[in-house]
Amino acid sequence: MRNKELLFEAQGLSTDGSEELLSVSHLSGVGPRSEKNVTMTEAASLDGYRVVEPCDLVINTMWAWMGALGVSGHAGIVSPAYGVYRPRPTAPFEPRFFDHLYRSTEYVMEMTRVSRGIWSSRLRIYPEVFLRMAVPVPPLDEQRAIADYLDREIARIDTLVEEQQRLIEMLRERRFAVRVNVALQGAAPSAQVESTLPWAQRLPVGWRVVPLTSVARLESGHTPSRSREDWWQDCYIPWVSLHDVGTMRGVKYLERTAQEISEAGMANSSARLLPAHTVVLSRDATVGRTAIMSVPMATSQHFAAWVCGPLLDPEYLWVLFTDAMQPFFDSFQNGSTIRTIGMGDLKAFRIPLPPLDEQRRIVAHLDEETAKIDALIAESERLVELARERRAALITAAVTGQIDVRGAV
Fold it and tell me: So what's the pLDDT on residue 259?
């Protein structure tokens, strides 16, 4: 059937905006905005918003290509930019079945194909186009049987996904705890206590708490003006900038940078070319991302860099920055919109310092233990991915009649 044989566009508008505001998500369909994690600012007035009744199909016209649609189980209102389609009184329309069908991967792909727009992110599905689209309509009793079957099977899959996600979260917490405890207490911590730190209850004998600047030279970066094009031509010197922050998550060695600078640019910058094995730390915007330079590089002003002396292993300092000190970076930040760790705070950093051979044993031990936990996390993430693929395939197969669910238990 054509959608227009099942549905018609509902044109009702709210007179005072007092109805419950609904939200449409590609993940969870239609539901009260108050129950969803919505970051967009709510309009000052909801007058003129479109009225939604239970069983109405609601489509976010701008995000239908992402699957932002669903059959509502609630009465309320939605943005006037959304499409609201109401079942015809005599139409064979089981809401649960059509919620699955319209949100299925294949039907969303078909809506994307017939949507209009210059760019994929600007595609729109307009009412006249949607209502012309064809839709498979099994008998009403089969719709109910399919919906019952999917309710059961999806609940099982979703339970499995939730269990794996809880396991992943527990493994990540375990990973963090292992790395922090070992970094601050050693691979084989002693029962004797030499000092007490805010972030560790016990410090093994032979360890010290020292200012970081006493064992590493602190360097700050700089970015020369972009007005001189020759400073940014014929570039080959690696330049650590905020463009690299995203690649630093969980990466020990920074092999290459997103940007490079020329010799002329370096000559007109107060930044210096720093040696390999320098440890960099982002101090603006996304604060606390860290990596070790694998080759000589320079940095922008958004990074602090430590050139480690003979008493400090760069990989041990990276471990401290990556894990043990992460919860405390927030306490050093200031600024309401752009968060920053100031140079004065950076100079005040103090770290636990084991003997150099112990630092290296700690790093080797953590590499081994972390690899085991990471393998378990990767396995669980793969199970979640497979379960979600199974979920989508099962819905498509059921709503298109590829499997017979009658009598299924």
Answer: 86
